[in-house]
Amino acid sequence: MAGNWKMHKTPAEAGNFARLLRQRVAPGRGVEVIICPPFPALAAVATKLAGSEIGWGAQNMHWEPEGAYTGEVSGPMLQAMGCRYVILGHSERRSYFRETDEEIRKKVGAALACGLRPIFCLGENLATRRSGKAVDFCRRQFKDVLEGMEISVPDALVVAYEPVWAIGTGKTATPADATEVIGALREEAARLFGREFSARLRFLYGGSVKPDSMPAFLEEEEIDGVLVGGASLDIEQFTAIIDITADLRGNND
């Protein structure tokens, strides 16, 4: 369960949320939980979550370890803040800041090289979905970023499928929509990295995830978790999602 806070919460607000989250998420429930606050809130979150099972990550990074890149943050800096994960290629970075697959490829490679786990996001817009080309489009994004990259173990990477047309638009993807795309991506992973790697690679679904909508997605075998946006800002909704997931996974076991 990964919470993407986007551009929300001051350090004080983030620290208070992290404190509450630690109190309400019991250890040993079999669900990996991480939150990804804005850069200024990372220190506050790290302080409150240190020593717990809950992890934290960043929402972006530059591909260079240091240099004259005003306003950017590097992988080693994030590591120094205790980050285990970093979200890369989010649809908002692609659309608002014009990030290309080539830039995202460099960021993913840099994150892997310094020991951070990328949450690599991809997904199609509404026009591509309506044209019937969603699967091909997402497979190309996956291939363009990851082909030829050396990834030693599948745990080093997480892939998040986020249909752009289902994020904050009132439109919703179905579990069948998500399974079709993720199934194709898993096949592409098998082609690039081998069948065993592909079977263990974790795929998340992200698209206006809410407590009432996410169980149907997690019941799909192809989907290993969710990337939560707005609902991760609310302690009640986010902990409900975590509790539901723990119950579902427990029942499946």
Concise description?
With 253 residues, this protein is of the alpha/beta class. The protein has eleven helices and eight strands.
Features:
11 helices, TIM Barrel, about 250 residues, alpha/beta
Structure description:
The protein contains 11 helices and 8 strands. The protein is α/β, with parallel strands linked by helices and 253 residues long. One of its GO terms (cellular component) is cytosol. Involved in the gluconeogenesis. Catalyzes stereospecifically the conversion of dihydroxyacetone phosphate (DHAP) to D-glyceraldehyde-3-phosphate (G3P). Its main location: cytoplasm.
Query: What is the CATH class?
Result: Alpha Beta
CATH topology: TIM Barrel
Overall average pLDDT: 95
Q: Which range does the strand content fall in?
A: 5-15%
- Terminal-residue CA separation: 18 Å
